[in-house]
Amino acid sequence: MSIDIVGITKNFGSFTALDQVSLSVPSGELVALLGPSGSGKTSLLRIIAGLETPDSGHVLFNGEEATNRQVQERKVGFVFQHYALFRHMTVYDNIAFGLTVKPKKIRPTKLDIRDKVFTLLKLIQLEQLADRYPAQLSGGQRQRVALARALAVEPQVLLLDEPFGALDAKVRLELRRWLRRLHDEIHVTSVFVTHDQEEALEVADRIVVMNQGRIEQQGTPSEVYDHPATPFVFDFLGNVNLFQGRVHEGKARMAGLELASPEFATAHNAPALGYVRSHDIEIERETLDLGALEAEVRYVLSVGPLVRVNLALVDGNGIEVDLARDVADRLRLSVGEKVFARPRKIRVFTEDYQI
Ligand SMILES: Nc1ncnc2c1ncn2[C@@H]1O[C@H](COP(=O)(O)OP(=O)(O)OP(=O)(O)O)[C@@H](O)[C@H]1O
């Protein structure tokens, strides 16, 4: 089922949580709503679910007006961060619950329910644990059961609000890969709320980046990562360094760097911000040209497969560089050493345009 959000605004008192938000989710797509705390992700999800009413705007399901439809009529399934399972029921009964409480006329037979529950148990790879109680499961297993319970009633839309938020990093990673594979199998239209950019980049077909109740950008993971439309998106998706400067008659100057572009031709001393991802900077001991910045090594820190180097520039500002371990091993940097930092890619934003 496709979802269209058209010009949705939601206020809580004088606070605007959603400001004229429009979004289309084609049938079968997995969309991630990504943004910092308070950006309006959950409010938008709750409006799609029918748990919250917008002040203005419309929600359409398959092109049909659904703004005032009751939750029960919307055929949505939910999985929340702390959507506790029924403690006194086994895994089997938890998953079967939505089917057993259906009105008698449309309730499947006991045998059909059994078939359905075991199909779902297979899908979530927990067939052996049907008779366990929630307290006897790990956090990751519980969330998989919660997902199976949501899927049992064959929702047309699946809404997931930080479903893996309470789990530790390793389980989180496993589950998001598992969710991606599961979605490839069942293709139910899904909206997934997260504030974790890696999770969104890995799981979603499309990412909707939210900030202060508005959509900053939407696109495929590579579109938003490689071509961020705004400084906010650049900053939010990855570890970035920021250089302040100015553009004037075809040139941008910042932190001792000079960049020429025809895009700047009409700018006259306009303030500009240059963004460089920490893995888009090379460190050299010697330099032959002007494209590198003189710096001093402040500290060197191993972070798993990366080595994070903090450099102090001549102007006193600090930048962070992430080097692959083999590159760092070759360089063998020591604290206090003088080096050169060469940004490979800089994205310049001025008030009027970006390159
Ligand atoms: N029922 C409510 N009453 C008053 N304010 C609310 C209510 N629900 C949400 N808000 C406010 O609306 C804003 C958006 O909240 P929302 O939960 O949608 O953000 P979010 O992006 O999901 O954040 P988080 O990641 O922290 O859950 C927040 O500032 C929040 O305090």
TrEMBL record:
All copies of domain ABC transporter, residue ranges: 3-237
GO MF terms held by the record: ABC-type sulfate transporter activity; ATP binding; ATP hydrolysis activity
Gene3D superfamilies (alphabetical): P-loop containing nucleotide triphosphate hydrolases (3.40.50.300)
PROSITE patterns, per database record: ABC_TRANSPORTER_1, ABC_TRANSPORTER_2
Database matches in InterPro entries: AAA+_ATPase, ABC_SmlMolc_Importer, ABC_transporter-like_ATP-bd, ABC_transporter-like_CS, CysA_C, Mo/tungstate-bd_C_term_dom, P-loop_NTPase, Sulph_transpt1
Cellular component, GO, one term: ATP-binding cassette (ABC) transporter complex
Transmembrane helix as UniProt keyword: no
Keyword set, alphabetical order: ATP-binding, Cell membrane, Membrane, Nucleotide-binding, Sulfate transport, Translocase, Transport
Protein name (Swiss-Prot/TrEMBL): Sulfate/thiosulfate import ATP-binding protein CysA
Gene from which this protein is expressed: cysA
